[in-house]
Amino acid sequence: MNPLNEYPEVRRTLYILQWAVSLVMGVLGIVLSVNGDGVSDLPTWYVTTGLVLSFVWSYTGITAQQNVPTDPDA
pLDDT (tens digit, 9 = 90+) per residue, 57-66? Predict the structure, then answer.
């Protein structure tokens, strides 16, 4: 059961927020890598944030998957 089924606007807003944060993290990772010594020189706060977000996003993805109909005609 998805607790956000009753609040589709909240769910939509959270997905947009997820997309925006992922975009910022991706661009920031590229900038940090180019300005430093590459991927091995990424700051600890960035790596930690990426790990936490990947955990949160996987739960969000599972929630999204439960809301996609499996019947192609639906």
Answer: 777 666 666 6
Quote the CA–CA distance of 9 and 15 in Å, as a whole number.
10
Both tokens assigned to 67: 């809301």
Q: Between 60 and 10, where is the model more confident? A: 10
Q: Please give the Cα distance from 35 to 65 (Å, whole number).
A: 37
Q: How is residue 14 written in tokens?
A: 């959270």
Place of tokens 């949160």: 56
Q: Taking CA 12 as the corner, what is the angle to CA 11 and CA 14, rounded to the nearest 5 degrees?
A: 65
Q: Could you tell me which residues come within 8 angstroms of residue 22 by beta carbon, excluding any fewer than 6 positions away? A: 53, 57
